[in-house]
Amino acid sequence: MIAIGVFTTLAVLALVTQIGVVWLQAKFAPRGEMIAVRGGALHVVDLGPRNLAEPPIVLIHGASSNLGAMQMPLGDRLAQHHRVLLIDRPGHGWSRREDLADSSPAMQAREIGEALDRLGVPRAVFVVHSMAGALGARMALDQPDRVAGLVMLAPVTHPWRGGVGTYNKVMTTPVVGPLLAYTITLPLGLMLTDAGARAVFTPQAKPADYVDATATPLLLRPRAFLANSWDLTGLKAAVQEQVARYQQITVPTVVIHGDADKIVSVDIHSRAFAAAVPHAKLIVLPGVGHMVQNAAPDLVQREVEALIAPAVTRSQAAMR
Hints:
With 320 residues, the protein is an alpha/beta fold. The protein contains twelve helices and nine strands.
């Protein structure tokens, strides 16, 4: 009888999850173009004027989110004067990733580069947040000619003490992880999403409409949640592998981090990264938490735009 009860409960939760997925995908429909790449497809939102001599700005979100986390505070305002490309990282938002376990920053940088090639974008200024800091650094290492400038916002760049949460390890466990993802993750997550978002913004206040405005609940779909867990569990080893190469980064680099960030340590990551990268500019914001782009959008915009004009000059010089 107990076994029948457990099976029935799981079946009901699985049905609720599938209904929830349909509801979420109708509520938060894709807003951009799907670009086919090896291993899946990337969802790209293209904003702002197209016919500019300057390189476009590519915005890439961190963990547990999608491109909406970068569009709300930065993308729309930058697009008033610049071409802006917002990208759902592989497996997140509306981007598809065939192999969920293949989660490395190197793979994600390669697929983003491939998508930009298909869009006819040879160079861009990259703005990356949080976990995407490892991806941005990898892009500068593996594809330096593509990177006209790099702005790192509260980035993950170095190994740290501890892990990334027991539940992420459980989610990457064969059988158990998918079972949980397709049963309890979505209904439970809907109850916890708002509180989780508030914690990420601390000590700043979360915008009242943030969760829906950024389509954050898309994370709770089974494959997206599993992709996020694989990203996080593999992140520490990935940055360990690339950290010794940071002194090879030659692209113009700006690092912006709040000293009140409880999610990503400014000392372990940004200070160490800025010290390793030749000529990197480090800006530490007193009293600011993890969501730098929301707390100081004017500053971030100025730093991004400061990288564009020199990039145009370098491109013009190269053409002579």
